[in-house]
């Protein structure tokens, strides 16, 4: 217990940092993922190409490489002054958005084609059909895989510790460098913190899934 009690402020700061990183990256991933999913099913060829390219590149790029591209590439393009925390949010959000997109697209494919055709027959545009008819049903189907993706996102935040971001991974690195602490105890407390975060996400999505299942 002395590892936690002696360094409680550090653990608290790292825990809050991980939660903030997870929440903000998740919001960005959900917005981008929904937008790219709409592009992938769009009747406009250019948008479909963009969506396919986005998903293909990001799903097949290691996350560490994406972090390097963001932290080194953006300043090289003249976009300087970004805080390392927001660069981490950008990298994690973009990376996860590709997987969110595919989860939503799978949900879209479960919606009967006849519903979209009926919507078009009464004069609804593609955007109206997607937002009002297709996406609400696809979202219900996609809740379990999206929950799993956000749990993976929470664990992926540990990579940010290598890029000067304060979160649980950086706490582990700092304490490992200090003498007098058992490394296994440090890992145990870090693991417990991640378990709290992932169990919370899992519980929230289980409640959401049950609520929407009743609403159906």
Automatic annotation (TrEMBL):
Record's subcellular location: Cell membrane
Q: Which UniProt keywords apply?
A: Amino-acid transport, Cell membrane, Membrane, Transmembrane, Transmembrane helix, Transport
Q: Where does the ABC transmembrane type-1 domain start and stop, copy by copy?
A: 15-205
GO terms, molecular function: transmembrane transporter activity
**Residue spans crossing the bilayer:** 21-41, 61-78, 85-105, 183-208
What Gene Ontology terms describe where this protein resides (cellular component)?
Answer: ATP-binding cassette (ABC) transporter complex
Residues annotated as signal peptide: none
InterPro entries for the chain: AA_ABC_transptr_permease_3TM, ArtM/GltK/GlnP/TcyL/YhdX-like, MetI-like, MetI-like_sf
Q: Which residues form a coiled coil?
A: none
Membrane topology of the entry: Multi-pass membrane protein
Q: Could you state one GO biological process linked to this protein?
A: amino acid transport
Record-stated family: Belongs to the binding-protein-dependent transport system permease family. HisMQ subfamily.
Instruction: Please give the name of this protein.
Output: Amino acid ABC transporter permease
């Amino acid at each position: 217990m002395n590892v936690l009690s002696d360094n409680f402020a550090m653990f608290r700061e790292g825990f809050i940092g991980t939660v903030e990183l997870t929440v903000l990256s998740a919001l960005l991933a959900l917005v981008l993922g929904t937008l790219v999913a709409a592009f992938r099913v769009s009747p406009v060829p250019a948008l479909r190409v963009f969506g396919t390219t986005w998903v293909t590149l990001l799903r097949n790029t290691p996350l560490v490489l994406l972090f390097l591209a963001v932290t080194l590439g953006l300043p090289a393009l003249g976009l300087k002054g970004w805080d390392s925390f927001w660069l981490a949010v950008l990298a994690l959000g973009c990376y996860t958005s590709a997987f969110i997109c595919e989860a939503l697209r799978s949900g879209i494919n479960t919606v009967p084609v006849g519903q979209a055709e009926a919507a078009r027959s009464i004069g609804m545009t593609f955007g109206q059909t997607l937002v009002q008819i297709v996406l609400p049903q696809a979202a219900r189907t996609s809740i379990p895989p999206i929950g799993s993706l956000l749990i993976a996102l929470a664990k992926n935040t540990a990579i940010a510790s290598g890029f000067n971001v304060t979160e649980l991974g950086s706490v582990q690195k700092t304490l490992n460098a200090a003498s007098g602490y058992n490394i296994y105890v440090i890992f145990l407390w870090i693991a417990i913190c991640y378990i709290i975060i992932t169990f919370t996400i899992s519980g929230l999505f289980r409640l959401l899934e049950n609520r929407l299942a009743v609403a159906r």
